[in-house]
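User: quick one, sequence for these tokens?
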């Protein structure tokens, strides 16, 4: 019973994080550049922590959050590389959203914030 409850709340959490994550890419109000290109990184890391937790719920939250952080940082560095297949993937919304398009050091602090919040979120879900 505990597992099904955790899965249910993880799915609800994913459904909660998706709308603001997508909206952060289209937001045009005050501080839109920051929301579009920086704050979205926080939501991105939290989202992937939740997705991994959905499938690997028996894994410790810190291991999931750390793995997601490492992969996210790798993907940021990968934005320095522009072979034709990555250029093609980044040409589409999903590719831009998952892989990103432009490397910037300023994204890393936001990934760490997402890591911390994702870890706390998973700890909470683990206790439900």
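Assistant:
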């Amino acid at each position: 019973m505990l597992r099904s409850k955790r899965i249910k709340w993880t799915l609800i959490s994913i459904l909660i994080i998706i709308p603001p994550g997508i909206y952060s890419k289209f937001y045009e109000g005050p501080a839109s550049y920051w929301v579009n290109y920086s704050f979205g990184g926080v939501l991105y890391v939290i989202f992937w922590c939740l997705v991994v937790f959905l499938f690997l719920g028996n894994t410790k939250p810190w291991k999931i959050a750390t793995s997601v952080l490492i992969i996210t940082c790798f993907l940021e560095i990968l934005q320095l590389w522009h072979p034709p297949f990555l250029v093609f993937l980044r040409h589409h919304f999903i590719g831009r959203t998952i892989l990103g398009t432009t490397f910037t050091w300023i994204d890393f602090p936001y990934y760490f914030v997402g890591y911390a919040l994702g870890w706390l979120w998973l700890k909470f879900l683990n206790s439900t």
